[in-house]
Amino acid sequence: MLDQNRTPYVDALIEFARSEPGRFNVPGHQGGVGADRSLFELVGQIGLTNDIPALIEGIDVGEPNPFQEAQHLAAEAWGAKRTWFLLNGASQGNQAMCMAVAHMGAELVVQRNVHSSVIDGMIMAGLKPTFAAPEIDPELGIAHCLTPETLTEALDRCPDAAAAIVVSPTYFGASADVAALADVAHSRGVPLVVDESWGAHLHFHPDLPQSAINAGADLVVSSTHKIVGSLTQSAMIHLSSDRFEAEIIDRCVSMTESTSPNSLLCGSLDAARRQAAVYGEELLTETIAALSEARSEIRSIDGLDVLDESLLRQKSVIGWDPLRLTIDARGTGTTGYRIAALGRQLANINLELTSDTVAVAVFGIGTGNPARVLRLVDGVIAAVDHIGAEPPSTKPEFAPPPPWGEPAMTPRDAFLGAQDVVPFTEAEGRISAEPLATYPPGIPNVLPGERLTRETLDFITDSIDHGGYVRGAADREMSTLRVVAE
Ligand SMILES: Cc1ncc(COP(=O)(O)O)c(C=O)c1O
Fold this sequence. Notes:
CATH topology of the largest domain: Aspartate Aminotransferase, domain 2
CATH superfamily of the largest domain: Type I PLP-dependent aspartate aminotransferase-like (Major domain)
Bound molecules: pyridoxal-5'-phosphate
Low-confidence stretches: none
Oligomer: single chain
Structural class: alpha+beta
């Protein structure tokens, strides 16, 4: 057992900075000496002092090696065999993971509503996906998880699968039966990869859904910054079995990261790991209690409801994460978008994700307390009161994302092949050469290689009109689209 109360990498950075080194290396601000004054306002002298480059003896080179120790501590904390720190988010984790899968074969089974970074990874790695559809909630218009039956059926269609990639928990906190999914995959000798970006905290409290590693996943991508509270963009990838080779993952992580890793991001992972491992259970107990209170308060507001353990009625869902507060806005006669926009305008509160039907507030591992719950509830009340005073509007049309287009070629062939650029409005029927994912939540509506339908093009336009944006297209204004030259 390692001492989880230590933060070796953070300590080594601080010790180095305190030694007042003569800085004649990168970064060019050299501890703040050459920084613009606005940068001091932004990150402070301490941030500039601790912005220390890679390859420094006693930090990440030589023995002992505090950087490696920090990763070992993280592996132990999450129950992994080996853990890598990632400085370009879980997006990097998904890309590296796809590269690692490609060493074992070209075909794989992928949950269709994976994050767009998995699609990018498949393009980079040249993988040929067989898609498995998640369970769709017809009332709320959101996707839940993958059932073991759907995975079985997808693996039947893809007997040479090198891996199966699933997402759990979802943006809305629904957890899949990862143990059963792992059984299905392993019974065919197929490794199971779980994108657990929204569940880095699950490992640290007995009342939360079981973590993917504990449930038997082989490789887990985790967006540590999302709930566990490291700095934005820092994340981890955990290996927990022999079904992947550590050396290959190592190579794929290096390939997808900068040769100038940021010490502050990296240090924040060491710090967040200590907080989760040592204080996680206590902090989560408080946060879970505060959120339970928040849910009852929001439920008592006329027209609002919240998603809770009722999610467990869904076939694909066996666990529910209470750190997501999903407000069901349907009873107010308006949309989740409108509630969130009014909350921002009237009370300066910012929610994580909105749709026609819901608005989702996210809490971190140690951020649920009565004062913050009050702030959220007051903001939501201000929004709902405002809506009540507006002239009655017609109830919003419920618009779930339309069915996915028919796949006509692999994502890589479409993305890298000969292309035409056509006006967005005239792209119907063409094969898309780029992925299109409306944000939030960043789930691809279109993959390279799929035929574009009128319904999907209209859905994307509607999403942009409601303040969303689209990731993946070369033309960020979305006036044109790149399609396969046929
Ligand atoms: C399921 C899932 N995977 C991966 C990512 C990418 O995470 P990051 O922003 O850390 O790159 C996200 C981001 O929202 C996500 O929801």
